[in-house]
Input
Amino acid sequence: MKRILLKKWGLPLALLAMTMLLLSGCQSVAGLDINKALVQSMTQVSGESKQTLSIELVPAEGVVHPEAQRLIEQLNSLSLTIDSAKVQDQGNMSVKGAVQYKEEQYPFHLSLDEQGMAIQLEGAKQPIYISTESGALSGMYAGEAAKYEDQILGFTKQAGEFFFKHLSNPKTLSVKQTQSEVFGESLSLTQLHTEIRGDELLAMVKPFLTSVAKDEQGIKDLIGAFYDVYYPIMQEAYSYYDDYYYEEYYEDEYYDDYYYEDYDYEDYYYEYDDSDYSDVTADRGFGLDLFSISQSKPVVVATMTATIQEVINTLLTDYDANMKSLLEETPELNVVLGKDTVLDLDLYFDSKLQIRKQAMELTIALPASEDFPLQSVKLKADTEQRNLGGTVEIDAVDVTSGVIDYFGKPMTPGEMLRNFESDSAIYKLLKDDFQFTYKSVYLDPHNSYYGTVVNNNTTFVPLRYLSEELDAGVKWDAYSKNIVITNDITGQEIRVTPDSKHASIGGKAVVLEQPVFVNEDGVTYVPLRFMSEALGAKVTVEEDGWIFIERP
Output
């Protein structure tokens, strides 16, 4: 059981420790109260910043497959520059910047408020919009959560103090005074420098867990604070979801004739062998369904405290032996959490203990193989901050001329692509590099319903089936007696007439080899090659007779 828990929790706990240690140590060094400074940085509610972020994939030594090499080069060309990020409060923020891919820049402007999030891409005719009412941003939208801002910040501060006080300092940790430029202004700052290796990180996990396990009152206080903050939030979230899903689904006419007794629910039960997890600690999660808000605070605090201590103490029993076995059974972890995984971090504090500048380089060693030809990934991020805790006004995206509702009516690739200027960089990226409009269809020559039929040596295909597979719109024009197919990519109209060879593409007349016809089942058939090419696709007949239709 102990080995199972260690396998289950060992790596997540190590990654959790890595995340916390990204913020460096916790004890006072050279007069700098690191604990206080880091906790304060976690509770800033407003400010301005700029940032650069880049990634480098380092290929393994030896021969790398050309396709893998191209992919590595493409990803290495990716970087993010944020020229201006503004946070007004928890519910309002904006970001202006650009993503670089290969040798092209793709500027963007994003803003978030109580109504939703708007994203304006350079070259787009209208911004993309995600409304909070769609439920996509969160169960309880940012503006609603903002009224709990003080409580959330208070809990964040308490949680930070709890975790930081149990962390020991890394071996490499130094503090010095320096002059550094922030937003073009030379400032006198306190520089905190730390380096943490992967093998050092593993050595810091056990002391951290040991210290936490002994702090029973600290755990109780933290869980109690969590309960006080998130109990009302969860209540409101439940209410929000109940109202949203009832309106969205249960008032739908579909449910009027929906009979649950028609279903055998036993068919949906998933049976599994839980003998390996027979211990009560593993079965009950943390001793509480976190989404059950009927529990009283004393019950929640007592149950979760006991369970957390039990889990940690179980991990600590024979920790060294079990960790050794884990690393032997999973040798890849020896590389990822070895000496070649290194975090190099510099934090620059002003006299108010505000982080004004950050410089981070993280190298993650990887177990290279023929199928995974990477020996490491390097991440580099540089950040500057100002006006922390001050009055900030965001740069809102202009939505007055209309938006594209991302969660509104489903959009075809062509409809989405036509929102961008055809000569813009983003248009070319979507169409050429990402093949946003690519579609392929296989047709069975022996299946007349979803396949083809041959009349007078001409292969025909069901008009609606092929058109909709290629995202084209189909409608009947009663006045002209034409079937109108709208090319999804170009927007051109293709017109055909049943029992006629005459058609048109974008207003230009064409004559078909054989007339369009309607079979005895009322299905309209059109010459395959004409319809495919009119919709921008290429037709290929394979050796086994199957027909492959491909649109770039």
Notes: The longest strand covers residues 47-59. The two ends are 54 Å apart (CA to CA). The CA atoms of residues 311 and 472 lie 57 Å apart. Confidence is low (pLDDT under 50) at residues 1-28, 139-143, 248-293.
